């Protein structure tokens, strides 16, 4: 029997009471009792020290063993954090039961995942890529282009799928209309409320889903962050319905998890601070910015131009962190090694 010790937890309140699960003293007492129990059953009980692994300084910290946002909300592990704990725990379990056919390390099946998106995914690209970096079980390729339209993704999709042969594609739904393929004959962008726009979106998703079905690839269509305007939210709902209408098999599913992670389905500029954000200067009166004032970007200060977007946000972006964590969870939940 392997019973990992209890880890510390993060708290919003800097001074939890003695009965709180966030009290380090209380956790240490419980862990000591676990070790006493194990000492009386040495032949078949092991208590690996999870507390020291994730609380190396005797208290909660968000980044652990080089993993950024390993415990993003003070309690749960991110996808990357979970894998870190799994890698640490696996040899402990195999040592406890050396003759049991629990694990094999002879061959590692690497999951190939392609993620396509527009501006939201572009803002979170580095965070998302970092969540899977160095893990031999995953090969994640993020293809994100600011303001890209779905009709542009069709060409990217065909080429990338042919080269990467992924088993999963994560596709961020887009309602962008600034691309040349979303322009009327006179060169003006198609209105997102027009039949022509919806027809172009429908055709693009039909093409993508047909390509995926032919290649036997699973697709998760991710609802983007809620738009700041009612018109934008209506466009997202209409395009989502159109995409659902052309699903041609069980290989396509839809997820609202990333949308909800930043306050969806309604638009919010702020959300309650997470435990690891309580000390941030951006956390004021228990709330922290998750979107720019103008509603477009995650970066609290926004971007004045495409060049500044490419350069990146100069301050901590809670919205980007939440969105990246949600995307990571979507991927790992869909195809766990």
List keywords for this structure.
alpha/beta; globular
Shape: globular
Total beta strand runs: 7
User: How many DSSP H or I helices?
Assistant: 10
Low-pLDDT residue intervals, each spanning 5 or more residues: none
Portion in strands: 5-15%
**Can you list the strand order of the major beta sheet?**
2-1-3-4-5
Distance between the termini: 23 Å
The helix-strand sequence is HHHEHEHEHEHEHEEHH
Structural class: alpha/beta
Largest sheet: 5 strands, parallel
Q: Considering DSSP H and I runs of 4 or more, what fraction of the residues is helical?
A: 25-40%
Average pLDDT works out at 87
Radius of gyration: 23 Å
Explain this structure:
39% of the residues lie in helices and 10% in strands. The chain has a 5-stranded parallel beta sheet with strand order 2-1-3-4-5, with helices on both faces. It has a two-stranded antiparallel ribbon with strand order 6-7. It contains 10 helices and 7 strands. It is of the alpha/beta class and 337 residues long. The protein has helices at residues 24-39, 50-54, 79-96, 119-132, 150-164, 195-215, 230-245, 257-261, 306-311, 318-334, and strands spanning 111-117, 138-144, 168-172, 218-222, 252-255, 270-272, 287-289. Helix 4 (119-132) packs across helix 10 (318-334), helix 5 (150-164) runs parallel beside helix 6 and helix 6 packs across helix 7. Helix 7 links the parallel strand 4 and strand 5 (252-255). The mean pLDDT is 87.
């Amino acid at each position: 029997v392997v019973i990992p010790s209890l880890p510390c937890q993060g708290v919003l309140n800097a001074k939890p009471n003695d009965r709180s699960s966030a009290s380090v003293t209380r956790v240490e007492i419980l862990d000591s009792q676990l070790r006493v129990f194990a000492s009386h059953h040495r032949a078949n009980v092991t208590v690996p020290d999870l507390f020291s692994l994730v609380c190396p300084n005797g208290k909660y910290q968000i980044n652990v063993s080089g993993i950024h946002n390993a415990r993003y909300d003070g309690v749960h592990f991110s996808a990357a954090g979970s894998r870190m704990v799994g890698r640490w725990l696996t040899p402990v379990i195999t040592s406890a039961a050396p003759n049991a056919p629990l694990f094999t390390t002879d061959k590692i099946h690497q999951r190939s995942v392609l993620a396509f998106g527009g501006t939201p995914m572009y803002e979170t690209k580095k965070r998302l890529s970092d969540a899977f970096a160095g893990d031999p079980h995953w090969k994640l390729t993020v293809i994100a282009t600011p303001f890209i339209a779905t009709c542009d993704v069709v060409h990217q999709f065909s080429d990338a799928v042919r080269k990467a042969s992924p088993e999963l594609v994560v596709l961020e739904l887009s309602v962008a209309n600034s691309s040349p393929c979303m322009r009327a004959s006179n060169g003006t962008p198609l209105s997102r409320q027009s039949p022509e726009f919806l027809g172009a979106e429908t055709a693009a998703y039909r093409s993508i889903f047909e390509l995926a079905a032919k290649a036997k690839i699973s697709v998760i269509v991710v609802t983007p962050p809620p738009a700041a305007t009612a018109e934008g939210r209506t466009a997202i709902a209409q395009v989502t319905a159109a995409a659902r209408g052309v699903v041609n098999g069980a290989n396509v599913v839809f997820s609202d998890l990333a949308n909800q992670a930043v306050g969806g389905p309604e638009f919010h500029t702020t959300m309650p601070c997470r435990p690891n954000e309580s000390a941030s200067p951006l956390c004021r009166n228990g709330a922290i910015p998750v979107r720019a004032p103008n509603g477009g970007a995650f970066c609290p200060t926004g971007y004045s131009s495409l060049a500044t977007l490419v350069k990146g946000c100069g301050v901590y972006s809670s919205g980007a962190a939440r969105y990246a964590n949600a995307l990571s969870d979507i991927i790992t939940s869909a195809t766990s090694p």
